[in-house]
Amino acid sequence: MEVLVTGATGFIGTKLVDKLIGRGDTVTALVRTGQIPNPKVKVITGDLTYPDFDFVDDQYDVVYHLAAAWPGEKDKKLQRKVNYDGSVNLFSKIKDKARFFVYVSGLGIFGDQKGITIDENTNPNPNTDYAKVRLEAQKYLQDNCKQNGIPFSVVYLGDVYGDGGWFKSVMIDRLKKGSFKIPGFGKYYRSFVHVDDVVSALISIAEKNQTNQSFVLTDSNPVVFLEFVSFVCSKLGVKIPGTIPIFLAKAILGSDFVSLLTTSVKASNSKISKICNLAYPSYQEGISSVISEIKS
């Protein structure tokens, strides 16, 4: 496949690019900053919020759009500039070059479903500014792909963990230092997914031509956040942390990030499981693997 990846130096993007190259695909990476050491990767340096750069005249079998500001970004204007304006600018660059567009979003766009298990038929109900902008960007891309005859699919990720990203910086590193606190009492459910399963699923969607679809991508085992943290602590060999009032957590980590984290989310992965075998069907297997990797 001829593939374009935005956010290619990010936690998921880095692993996706490596897996695609390992398969023999031709990969073009759009990066704002940083380097990609693999000489097989074509690199386009550019900031989607300032689209004063040119794509080469390649045609892409699939465009994976992962580039986004993270929910902990406290500057609402920057959130919108990256997550919405950046998506609009990207589309203007690839509307005559893409054969399939895959937008990678998150379960936050579903908001608080009051205990209902989320699947692809659940109506979005975002309850944070971050998720509202992400959904707005999705609708823009979906509508414009349709108008331009480009197949479009969206993937809603659960909380992605692995040796990197928020899981490493916000949780693991702070647990080791004893500075991590659980927002609220940790009694809310979360749906997690290992980064390797995210990469495998994204590739399966393109390989199996799963166009004009939506996919919820999590493991098979929603878990109360306190239990998840306790399991991580047992594998790290550190004490279970105390709690912090949600309003204080918001001041430290950002309102949207904490609101998203403390909203109870149970999700079903039955649809994605039909096209991709997850290597880590539960967080227990996945966390055990990640902690072993970190310790080694």
SSE diagram, text form:
Elements: E1 2-6, H1 11-23, E2 26-31, E3 42-45, E4 62-65, H2 76-94, E5 101-106, H3 129-147, E6 152-157, E7 159-161, H4 165-177, E8 182-183, E9 189-190, E10 192-194, H5 195-207, E11 214-217, E12 223-224, H6 225-236, E13 243-244, H7 246-253, H8 255-262, H9 270-273, H10 283-295
Parallel strand pairs: 1-2, 1-4, 2-3, 4-5, 5-6, 6-11, 7-10, 8-13
Antiparallel strand pairs: 9-12
Helix pairs in contact: 1-5, 2-3, 6-10, 7-8
Would you give an account of this structure?
The chain has helices at 11-23, 76-94, 129-147, 165-177, 195-207, 225-236, 246-253, 255-262, 270-273, 283-295; strands spanning 2-6, 26-31, 42-45, 62-65, 101-106, 152-157, 159-161, 182-183, 189-190, 192-194, 214-217, 223-224, 243-244. It is built from ten helices and 13 strands. Strand 5, helix 3 and strand 6 (152-157) form a beta-alpha-beta unit. It is 41% helix and 17% strand. It has a domain at 2-161 and 192-220 and 266-279: NAD(P)-binding Rossmann-like Domain (Rossmann fold, 3-Layer(aba) Sandwich), CATH 3.40.50.
